[in-house]
Fold this protein.
Amino acid sequence: MSMEALKRERIQLFKDAIIGDKKPERIPIFSNMWSWKILDAGYKLSEALNDYEILKKSLRHFYENYPADICHETGWRNPIQVTESMGNNAYIINDDQNSISIKDQCYMKPEDYDALISNPKKFLWETFLPRKFKYLKGSDSSDALRVGIQNYAKFGQFMGEVAQINEEFGIPDFFDPNGAILHWANGFEILFNMLRGIRGLSYDIRRNPDKVLAAIEAIDEVFAKPIMERTKGTPKGTNMNCSVDINPVLLAHTILSPKQFEKFYWPHFEKMIDYVTEEDKIVYIFAEGDSERFYDFFRQFPENRFALLVEQNDIFKMKKELPNLTVSGGMPVDLLGKATPKDCTDYAKKLIDELGYDGRYIFSEGKMISFPNDATRENLKATYEFVRDYRG
């Protein structure tokens, strides 16, 4: 089989698993693989994150050894070569512990809400960027910006080379670029991830909820609405050149109660539901943390359009409680890291038999694989090969 044919086959597996018109030929594998692949290739995190050639070698090593259908290499998780070139040192790399962490970032003060609401673009350009990137302050800011743009261009070149590597191994793009942009225009996630941080936004939703709502509306009006209108000009129907159309990553929901989720977050999903229904698109949601308290909302997702990966919840219970969704995840890191290959393949069989009987299951790990003990080479290879070959 040619790599182009393999890529098309993999795309169809994801389409069939989510749309549900027919069962996929086999259960697709979404590899929830992050910094582990760097360590498995024999490199330190500090080496790889500062050298795009090493990142590419790590990706090739992974594809050569593990038959995943998708390996989510976006490059955006830790783009330190771009951020540090402009004076942001929020990433903390510890090679002794094989860990990457990021400081809780707060680049917007509580009193800045009015400025953000009044003119989001002006606030982000004139206030947010100089606070986040200290080299953009002062008389030499234009030089720093030029360096940042140059490094961003190198990052873009790297992502283009990642796409070429994917083509060599028959790995499709996971999501439509337009869909990715649509998700990252989510006002609440922007406040959480970029502007106010965990502590700041947790305070704001209790003390200044009206300001938060107004800020979300202002951000959505400037970013989400134009993007949504622009993408409506593209052909209706799912993009057959990628596995899914939209890939939201939920992180900010972790600080919310169900009542707060309904107020601050759910309106974004209501717009997304309207959009994907009208434009005939499909969605794969990656929900970090515990999401079970939001199942009542997830039941409102239209059938045959949404897949959901959760990190900290019982996937067998989720299958029963959310029959409208394709479920994803479930492979325990404890098994991949500590058990035998047979233990792992036995559990993978259980997942496929009990979750994929109707074809509406996408195999994946139950958390982001990041540390050496999250998986052994033997266990991961045996598990992926079993899932690839098993037909139930």
Q: What stands out?
A: The mean pLDDT is 94. The CA atoms of residues 238 and 387 lie 26 Å apart. The radius of gyration is 21 Å. The longest helix spans residues 141-168.
